[in-house]
Design brief:
It is built from three helices and no strands. It is 53% helix and 0% strand. It has a single domain, classed as Substrate Binding Domain Of Dnak, Chain:A, Domain 2. The chain is an all-alpha fold. The model has no long low-confidence stretch (mean pLDDT 85). α1 packs parallel to α3.
């Protein structure tokens, strides 16, 4: 993965955290991520630092979601179309 792609993903994950805080009013604790001291806007940081920050932030977001015990939607076989169109 290129550094630009990592920066983009890092920014998107950061926006998810901001969205949860500002719109949903659900603060995600990101102590490990914050301790890294790296932001998506720190383009001078190397690729490895952004990858670690991205994975750490992603892990904390997923852990937060799992901790909330959000009910899982179960979809029956009747909600999906029986066949998908295939283009040759």
């Amino acid at each position: 993965m290129q550094k630009e792609e990592l920066l983009h993903l890092h920014m998107l994950m950061s926006l998810i955290r901001t969205y949860c805080r500002d719109v949903i009013h659900d603060e995600i604790l990101t102590e490990r991520y914050d301790s890294l001291g790296i932001s998506p806007s720190y383009i001078h940081k190397d690729k490895i630092a952004h990858r670690e920050a991205l994975f750490t932030l992603g892990d904390e977001i997923v852990s937060h979601i799992h901790g909330r015990k959000v009910p899982v939607m179960n979809y029956s076989q009747w909600t999906a179309p029986p066949q998908a169109a295939v283009e040759n």
